[in-house]
Every structure is written in C-alpha cells, then in structure tokens.
Q: What sequence folds into this?
C-alpha cells in the first residue's frame, strides 16, 4: 500500500468534501460536513453499531431496497435537530437535477441524502444552537465549489466543530491509501466518542498502535512511542483542571457524555450494494482500534461506505474484496488519529475542551 499525497477522502477520484462551520457567536460550536458524489452518483451502504444513533434515510441504503445510487452523504452536529441540514443538501441537489428520477421531466427527481448526526448540543454554551437546512446548503455548496482532489480541512471544522472524544477536543480527520491493485480506499471521520482515544496509563493514542501510516518512521519517530511520564502526569492534572472549569461554566457537574463517531469510507472500486454493506461493517473495526470503549449506548456510531465504481475488481478472485475491507478499517483508525491531532483547544461558556497536541505535542 502507498499513501497518496493528500491522504484524504478526495483521493477517491470524483468525491468532494465541504464543511460549514458554526462557531463562536451565539454560543455556537457545531457544523455540517457533506461528501458529494461525482455526477451519476455512487453506490452506498451503512452500518450502525452505536446504541443511540441519529440518522436519516439509512433504510434506503439496504441492499434489498430500490435506491441504487446516491449523490451525497451528510454528517452533522446538533444531534437529531441537526438532521435538518440534510434538507438543505436535498434542495441544492434538486436544483441541479440530481436524484432518483420519478417522472418524465428531468426536473422530477427525489434526492436521497443519507445523514447521521453527532451530539454537540450546548458545547458552545447555547443548547439551541444547531445546524439547519441553511447549514447543509452551505456545506454542499462548499463541496461543489471545491476543485477535484482538493485537500480536506481537518480538526475543529464542519461536523467536528463541537466534537469531543473522551473529554478531549475531537474533530474531523481523513486518510487514504492506494492498494497494490491500484484501488484507492479512503475514510473521513467525525471523532466524537464517549470512550477515549488515549491510553490512561501512558497518554499514547490507541490508534497509533495500529496506524498504517509509516511516514513517522521516515522522520525517525517510532509509531508506538509513549509520552514521557512527566508529560503524561502534567496532562492529567490539566485535564482535571479543565473538568473543573467546565463544571463552573455549566453551573454543576457535567451531564453524562452523549457522543457518536461517524465515518464515510470510500473506494473507487466497483462494489455491489452488498459488498458496500460488508465494507461499512468491517470498517467499524477501525473505530474499535482507536477508541475504548466503543459502540456504547451513549454513542450512535455509524459508518457509511461508498463506491464510485471506476475500477472493477478481479472477478476471477472471489476474495478480491478482502484487501478493501482491511484497508477500510485501517483508514478509519488513521483518520481518528489525525482528527485528534488536528483538533484545537476550545474554551468557552460551554466548557473547556483541551486538545491532545496542547497536552502532549505531536
């Protein structure tokens, strides 16, 4: 496997990503991220493993049902309220004449826009600050306006604006690889878990134990190295202090964590809807490697798998899908690590959420 230059979801040719970030004014700390398909759409599937999911149009992706291809996936903050963002994406797609044809007129389309949300309500200080249809439209317009193959902004942007993972600041991360077959596999995640990405005994990121990105080796860094004990001890003290600051900001003990990690795993391979369903399921392994515990009742962990169909699989090899399945999980793990490393500390009326980099460095 090789790592493309951008190391992003947009390394799958034809895919575009757009963010709409709502932060600061009005106690907001939320946003929406849209993955936009190339013209003609993409095969898609979904696998939900968390106990508290918030989703829209996921039943349409069941391989037994009629919808064969979709034009966009929406990831959003705002819990179930934020699913309104998908309506803005639908409206934009309808204007472009993109969607399932339901009549003789090319304008007679119904865009199918699967969506999933993360819980970030009140993290900016205002519980009623959440994405809406206008936020979704802004995100899909940003995606459409981007050049093919553009880098994808990571960290506290889009649906990751208010993300928190194990008490630390979470966010958006993305990663990609090219298999020996020439097939590209990539992932984009919103890391927002009740569980932690950090080993409490050492301060090391769990995902680094499985990180297939060997670029750090080229820099002379060992992927399994731990922070120095004194750094970890100081970080624990600062985390405790941040917890006290948050309790003061919200006027009492913080509520039980309500979270959710979302992912879109993409490939340029030709996949059936059943094969995409398998990819969505195995890609959850990537969350389990990077976050502990995972798939709790507090979480709504959801993985979408999409395939643009540019590269056929070897039909003579019944196990040709295996490399894609393995890479999907790997890319989710790497993307979570990148999300945590790209996140920035937030201090505001909703609490103090420290970044891993501020505590431990890179």
A:
């Amino acid at each position: 496997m090789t790592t493309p230059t951008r190391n992003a979801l947009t390394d799958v040719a034809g895919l575009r990503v757009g963010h709409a970030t709502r932060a600061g004014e009005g106690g907001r700390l939320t946003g929406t991220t849209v993955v936009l398909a190339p013209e003609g759409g993409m095969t898609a599937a979904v696998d939900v493993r968390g106990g508290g999911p918030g989703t829209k149009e996921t039943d349409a992706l069941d391989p037994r049902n009629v919808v064969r291809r979709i034009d966009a996936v929406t990831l959003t903050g705002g819990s179930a309220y934020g699913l309104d963002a998908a309506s803005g994406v639908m409206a934009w797609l309808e204007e472009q004449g993109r969607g399932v044809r339901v009549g003789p007129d090319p304008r007679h389309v119904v865009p199918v826009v699967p969506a999933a949300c993360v819980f970030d309500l009140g993290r900016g200080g205002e519980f009623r600050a959440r994405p809406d249809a206008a936020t979704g439209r802004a995100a899909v317009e940003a995606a459409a306006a981007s050049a093919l193959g553009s880098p994808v902004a990571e960290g506290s942007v889009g649906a990751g604006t208010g993300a928190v993972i194990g008490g630390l600041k979470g966010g958006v991360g993305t990663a990609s690889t090219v298999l020996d077959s020439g097939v590209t596999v990539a992932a984009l995640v919103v890391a927002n878990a009740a569980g932690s990405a950090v080993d409490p005994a050492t301060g090391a990121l769990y995902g680094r134990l499985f990180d297939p990105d060997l670029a750090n080796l080229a820099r002379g860094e060992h992927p399994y190295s731990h922070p120095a004990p004194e750094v970890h001890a100081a970080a624990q003290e600062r985390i405790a202090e941040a917890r006290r600051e948050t309790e003061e900001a919200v006027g009492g003990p913080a509520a039980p964590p309500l979270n959710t990690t979302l992912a879109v795993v993409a490939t340029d391979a030709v996949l059936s809807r059943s094969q995409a369903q398998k990819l969505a399921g195995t890609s959850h392994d990537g969350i389990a490697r990077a976050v502990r515990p995972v798939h709790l009742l507090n979480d709504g962990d959801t993985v979408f798998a999409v395939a643009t169909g540019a590269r056929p699989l070897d039909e003579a090899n019944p196990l040709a899908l295996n490399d894609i399945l393995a890479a999907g999980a790997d890319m989710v793990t790497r993307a979570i690590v990148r999300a945590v490393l790209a996140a920035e500390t937030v201090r505001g009326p909703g609490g103090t959420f420290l970044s891993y980099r501020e505590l431990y460095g890179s």
